[in-house]
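Following the same procedure, backbone shapes were mapped to integers, as reproduced here:
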Amino acid sequence: MLLIVLAVSPWLYITVCSISELAVNAGAGIETNIAPFLGSNYLTRLMLFPMDARSLTDGILNVSTPYLDLQMNMPLVILYMVSWVWIIRSGKIIRRQKWAAFVLLLLGVLTLICTSTVSSPALNVIGRIFRHIQFSYRLIGYADLFVVFGILYNFWVLVRSGCFREYEKYFAMILIICVTLGAHNLLIQMTHAYATANQTVVETEPFTNLPATFYGVSGYCDTSIPSIKEDPPEEWLEVNVPVYTDGHTLRTEFKADKKMFVRTNIQSARYNEIYVDGVRLDRDVVMEFDGYLGFYADAGTHVMDYAAEFPYMFLILRKLSYVSVFLLVFLTVFFWIRAFCMHKRGKRPEIPEKKR
């Protein structure tokens, strides 16, 4: 648990520091159209693999479909249903645990309906309840986490009751099928993702040239930066900072014939800073123009630099996060190998009996 908390500690730190200025807390959530990913029906939304009808005629590489997350994770639902059927059919599991598993399943079905519904009245109600989720893929993410919790609970009950040994071989076969199907779905999803990226390069090339540190357009996550919003001036100069594929930026020189407004390709985010002639611009002179940062420059030749300057605590937590993720992967592999070796030697981990 400590390693998991450390792994997400940079995100927790930034979120807590800017909790009052997050767009989702400022009422920027969605009220309707919470599941816009396909204009189709339940059959296509609940398929075992990501499917977009346009791919049949245009091909996967030519169709950008970013909203297939629900279908991609259907193997989780298969594993959940199988574990639930085993619990219901087992005679060794007490009634209270069966009822708990049944209630969890009902809630799981409800979350699945929430993420796949195409009914306008239902969307209006769901949108009001989940207003602060803001985007439909987040609701799908929470539904996935709920299903994972249900799977863990079901297998905990099966292992504690001693029923799991009866289904070990069947579980291995079903797990192989689910993992294979999940890998296949991930391949389809990533293919669509690359198609989306390629189309974005053609349509809006400046956006794709920006590194991940630019991510955070005002109105998406942080509403406090910058403090000034500039109305579109009649005349302005556009200066784009070149960005390499590794995310590093290049110093940019520009010339203004007179004092005029400069619009950059640097997105409006809390830790994005602009340096002009080696001096960092204060927040009270940086403005937002069409979701990007801008400023007024005097007549003459200037040089502009970009920097993502994070707090020192964030940099420390980020390093701890990397170490934590490495340890989590290492421990997972270690215990899987240990369990495999014990199984080969004919030993099984002892299950402690429930104390009376």
Observations:
- The mean pLDDT is 75.
- The two ends are 28 Å apart (CA to CA).
- The beta strands are 228-229, 236-239, 252-256, 260-267, 272-276, 279-280, 287-289, 292-297, 300-308.
